[in-house]
Design goal:
Layout: E1 4-9, E2 23-27, E3 32-35, H1 41-48, E4 57-59, H2 65-68, H3 71-80, E5 88-92, H4 96-107, E6 120-124, E7 131-133, E8 136-142, E9 152-158, E10 161-165, H5 173-179, E11 184-188, H6 202-212, E12 217-220, H7 224-229, E13 236-237, E14 243-245
Parallel strand pairs: 3-4, 4-5, 5-6, 10-11, 11-12, 12-13
Antiparallel strand pairs: 1-2, 1-14, 2-3, 7-8, 8-9, 9-10
Amino acid sequence: MAVSVTFVGAGDAFGSGGRFNTCILVDGRNIRFAIDFGATSLTALNKLGIAHNSIDAILLTHMHGDHFGGIPFMLLDAMLGARRDRPLTIAGPKNLAARIAAATEALFPGSNIMTPKFPLDYVELAVGQANNILGLAITPYAARHTPQTDPTALRVMVDDKTVTYSGDGEWTEELNQASRGADLFIAECYFHGKAVKGHLDYSTFRQHKQDFAAKRTILTHLGPEMLDKADDLPEECAEDGLVVVL
């Protein structure tokens, strides 16, 4: 069985171009997981007719709302509406459980008294080494983004395929390592003609494109300037709903 990748949301933090926040759904032989789950992800999944109860795990690159802010909504619906009864694993940076609990309480005051009736497991991923989560080999690489978010790029081996997502961040040598030889490298590319701290821009991407050495690369998290130029670029650019089969 092939591994498929669905760009549930391919947008930036601010909905440029009417796009949803980052949510990359990966289907393997025996597992379905999401890489990041931004604030609009529940709406984006519903638009595609994908039940969030079908997701076995959520892997987080960093703790910005457009990359994890949909989790409180998902968890509350899992308890109140969707009646989830199967396990869910959420894996990501340090202090993960406390940070999601704080976000949930901020968005839905009083919700902290609720307890899931399904097994919910939080796993803090060790950076720079392979973590075995539900049979996935997940290696986080340190990224250069807002330090308070504990940013990483994630390299995930599922079945016999490797998917790497840069998360948000500038170019680093670690990003080369994370992407090298991957079947699919999903690269954030927020800006086009200027380098901005904390993000990858198109000029820098082009400069290091050969270093990434992935079998296939797709640009995502495009800002307004990149969206205006996307149709003229030689690289593939993600859109909401795009499905890629590896």
